[in-house]
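Hello,

Following up on my earlier ticket. Below are the two sequence lines again, exactly as submitted.
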Amino acid sequence: MNGPEETQVALSWEPLFAAEWTWAAVAIGVALLALSWRSSRGLKQSRRLALFGLRAAVLGLLALVLAGPSRVTTTGKVTRDPFVVLIDASRSMRVQDASGKTRAAEVGSWLAEKQPEFAKLAGDVDIKYVLFGDDITTWSGDADDGPSDGGGEPPGGGEQGASGGGGPATGEPSPADRRATDIGAALFSLPDALAGARPAGVLLVSDGADRAALGRAFSADGAPAVSRLTESLSYPVSIWTVGDENGAPDLSVSKVDAPPFGFVRRPLTLTAHIRNRGLPGRPVVASLRGDGELLASEEVLVAPGEEAEVTFEVKPDSIGYHTYEVEVPVPEGDTVPSNNRLEVTVKVVRDRTRVLQVTSRPAWDVKFLRRLLKTDPNIDLVSFFILRSNNDGQLVRVGRPLSLIEFPYRELFDQDLQGFDLVIFQNFWFGSFLPIDDRFALDNIASYVADGGAFLMVGGDSSFGEARYGTSSLASIMPTAMPSTPPGTAPFQARLTEAGLRHPITRLTRDPSSNAPRWESLPPLQGFNPLGALNEGSVALVDDGAGHTVVAARSVGRGRTMAVATDTTWNWALSGSAQGGAGEDHATFWRNAVRWLVKDVEQKQVQIITDKENYRLGETIQAQVRVLTEDYSPRTDVALVGSVSPVRGGEPTAFEATTDASGQAAVNLTADQEGTLRITVDVPAIAGEYGSAEVRVSVTDREGELEDPSARPALLAAIAQATGGATFSAAPDPRDAARRPVDALMATRREVEPLWAHPLLLMLLVLPLGAEWILRRRMGLR
Amino acid sequence: MSSRTRREFLTLAAAGIGLGGALTARGAHALGEEPVGIARLLIPNLPDPRPGAIAGLMDEVGSNSSILTSTAVQTVAPGSRSLFNHPFVVLIGDRGFDPLSDEAIANLRLYVREGGFLFIDDASGVRDSKFDASVRRALARLLPGAGLTRIGRDHAVYRSFFLMRGAVGRMMVRPYLEGLWVGDITPVLYSSNDLFGAWMRSPDGGYALDVVPGGESQRTQARRLGLNVVEFALTSNYKRDVVHVRSLIERMRRQGGYGE
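Thanks for your patience. The regenerated structure is below:
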């Protein structure tokens, strides 16, 4: 508050010379005094003293002149430094203590009840009400208001937290919705919040549940550390601790241990930690929900002050992100109900890929592919070889000793088909079962692929055009046309096409520059089924060196298909191993093929990767979005749009980005809502499901405000002690809070009038000088 | 190398459909895949005691199964790189042989680990023969620490085509096969019973050697085992796939055991 204009006059000293010269002058003056005394030897003592006194007076006046006396006239307005009532508005203030009231309610009642005292105080000081948590704002009736203009009554209405009502004047609880408590930041940033004014004093009302700098210092080194951090404050801070030091009674799910990822249809173990603080020990039932569905419950007994573990085992039945929630009931007396449940998100990946391999007859190519797939721990392989010749050889005539089983083609290509992730026809022709009609099976395979399945056809004399698949339903899903042209049998060197240089199927080496040479070093193949033109969505990956496609891949519908038109890749395995290391290329090629066909997550065109799956409230989610072309080269300068939304429903937060030269876009998001968040990305330039991706993360507030909302009076007392404030254990009279003088003159004009040149001062200097000179002459001194 | 013309198309197993009639042959030659053949390991001072037997076996396999076979038999030295052109090799002998060179052992070791299959047949007809001693000495160096182990009756080789109870041959020196294991795969099988002796023909077309003690029924069993070995070399342990085990168990239950 500014008052009328006032003028103040004061004396100031502004030495005429620099300090060293001034001291030199003092030294000279002392020497002159000494000389004067010495020169008066022989005179009567009284005369000597008179001369000495006059000389001293002269030197003293000279010194006064050198000191530069000035009269300073300041004109300005008197301002009044504010007195701040700093109120904790963090979520811990919602805790209900033993009194039966929440801390915020205690504060609200105090503000209302002490209105008369506040009104009297307002007569002396300008009161400001400030709320703080993890930020600081003044508290007025209007969120846009600056500092209040007088009047000391607590504002009515104004900023309300989740627990706020119609304002403190009505006795409603004070706001309590800030995420965290940072007392240190609040105290040191008060001048900024007060438009540069320095508080005359602060009455801090808080539970002291600080987990920021002061809280950490207190936990590490106790009250002295807090005092050291706050002693530089230039105003006294008085404190009133609200809340129970022993902590509010609380039963909580403090943590859920989960593996970083799980496998589909494999047991996944979740361990929940149940903590009991201050409640009677009794059995409680911990429930586990998965994606909203109740999965299990376990009874657990947690003694007061103890923590118990409950272990759940689940078997996720699909890949993707699964959110699990552990919840315990809210017993009577539980003051923090919100921490009785905790969510965690687990990424579930495919454990084993189910592959069906069928062939019209055993052959080395079949054996080596089966051998590879069978030794892969990620693959569940079922193979069917048509072994039986209908030649009635002697061996077959005798009895029924055959181990052969009926090929269950109806089941496999009907109801069982969807159970496989990949179906391989390796030189297989349904004509092996004549006189059956194979159209139903081929139709089903086409539908299976359109619905998301994967199909691989490997060459041979019972494959591709030789099996007349070019005129069947398979023609609609295969990467190329399948003409009935007779196959070739000549040897050839497999060569990568332009797309094959980058495609994940044909990537034999990590270094792209060495991939083509690696292919050129492979043992030659022999013969291939002729393939026709590429169908839509297909890429040719390998040819015979003369432009004839040998390997091609296609994304069709929601599934994928692949054609390998030769039956001699087994040479890469056995013959290749003799070349020293090249034997691995057979395995690499086929593993790449299987992974691509079943759409291994790493091979999607749009991928979102977050730095973790579980975050604390307020943390930054570092997400990286990768966008690839159909041949898996980075897709640069492509726009993407995304959103973050709570799985349980709520407003989504949108974001946009553009990929850089490496086909990636870094996006920082804020975990600003508790629960499971869904992060989705769409790339408009890529049609269909291949242009989108989704991940999930869980956000909790563990280790936040409500983890341990015990009041910390010792921390607050240390602040008061360091700054010269008062400590109140009960609701205080605000007038008793410490404060320094509040009024100060805000200068608008300042005049400085040097006095050393004043004629009166000069006269005072000359008189003793003249008197000394006269007396010396009379006494016969020079 | 000659290739066998594919005679018929396949029908379902006898338990299922029982259809007769064959389809017309589809093609005179395989696409690029060579017909399945067997190469014989060439060891110095170890002549082939059963000439023509391998060809006889492959002819039987081609006649009774869907496999396209070649009756031509190539020889290959164990230390040669061309060993890797033959996924199935046999070692047949009736006498002892000198220790294989380190290079040959290393080559064979790589061969069996990378998918090659070695079948060894003692044609001496004598237990603990000199050939047997030479084989055991070589195999001990081949996969140190692995060691020849007796093959159980539930091994895939006994059910790869025919259901069999155990090992047979022209002789019954040991009623079981032995093998070396790499993981859960048996890339090396060893017969002490002169299995190939059961196929060896005389110039007049009959079988050259008598089968002891079981006579022609034993010869039939031996021929079946030979066919099983070839099927096993190509299909490995596919019969152990869960779905096949279930079906096999049901069939065995119906048949009252292991067949005849």
